[in-house]
Amino acid sequence: MKPRRVLVTDAGRASALAVIRSLGRAGHTVVAADCQPHPAGARSRYASARATYPSPFGDSAAGTATAIARLAHEHHIDVIVPVTDDVIVPLSHYRPTLPDDCVVAVASDAAWSQAGSKVATTLLANSLGVYQAPYEVIHHPADAVGVVERLGCPVVVKPDRSRIIGPDDTLVKGSVSYAHTDAEVSAAIERCGQSVVAQALHPGVGHGIGMVLHQGRPLLAVQHRRVHEVPVSGGASARRETVPADPELLSAACALLGDLGWTGAAMVEFKVGPDGPAFLEINGRLWGSLPLAVRAGCDIPNRMLGVHLGDADACTGALDTDYRSGVMSRNLDLELVWITSVLARGRSSSDIVTVTRRDGLAAARDLLRRGQGDDLSAPDDRRPVLTGVRHAVGHAVRKVRANV
Hints:
Layout: E1 5-8, H1 14-25, E2 29-34, E3 47-52, H2 61-74, E4 79-81, H3 85-94, E5 103-104, H4 109-115, H5 118-128, E6 135-138, H6 147-151, E7 155-159, E8 163-165, E9 171-173, E10 177-179, H7 182-192, E11 196-200, E12 205-214, E13 217-230, E14 236-243, H8 247-259, E15 264-273, E16 276-283, H9 290-295, H10 300-308, E17 328-330, H11 332-345, H12 357-366, H13 383-401
Parallel strand pairs: 1-2, 1-4, 2-3, 4-5
Antiparallel strand pairs: 6-11, 7-10, 7-11, 8-9, 12-13, 12-15, 13-14, 14-17, 15-16
């Protein structure tokens, strides 16, 4: 595959930094772009230039899409790699005019739209026989009557989409919440302004199957388990570890993404507990723990790039699960938030997960212990670390002041 000019968005995120490094090491010219002026990814030795675009939360989705298209023209970009839904949603909604032959590294519109809908993916999993906790799809607040009695307490309330464009053309975030009463379920529907999947809680440990596929055929896969999550009750992974690919989880992930005819990268999430595994959701994009996959020897970014460019070698071959198990990595920003949250509260709700201050102290000690890994660190690229550490410490301090 010949070298290309690639624009990577969300360059302040560790996942974007992993993409910048992987593609830069492979000889591609990488432009690191973000809505903040000094992202960690722009400090990488593998970033040939930095660029900024307006935030779709503070500005407008149209402004974000237009600015990224302008950057693609200015830097003669061949491929845009949008790392988060914050960018994918504006680009897919407004479809700005891009340079000729410029590729956006996202799955097809139909596949991405379905994967981004909790309602659609829940129904898909049900149709394929992939186990998930009992659920109800609720479209209106008034329809929540009796849902807690039917599903048990607490109920997990998932907005249909994690990002939607609001009436003022800014991006609106939909967050998963826990409800103990029907009134709380109704309030969650009111807050997010969209349909929700109300689901019974499935206790267990979060696992993710990260994959690259071509037209639904799996090419590359890596599995990790979540050690710490933010919030503590369940969310983004702060600390995680690669584990051998579980045949049952891998089969379910292949079935889901295969049915969508997926091309590109995606991650399928599960909870694995005493009652076995349960499907949670599909992340139809690069995921937050991507640096762990790369550290373990699974080069998701380069394989993804090759697939989107139609490279024959990248699009063919048997499913590759040859990565190192037992590799640890953490997102320092989120890990500090996890530690300060646990130390401040002692534990989260006992009906979701129990974490003690002793666990928080142990995690704090592990910050100085070798072999834990860090998303920002790389022996051949040390400059982003200082920027990332400053941001992480500042974020943790703000969280403590807010009494997380």
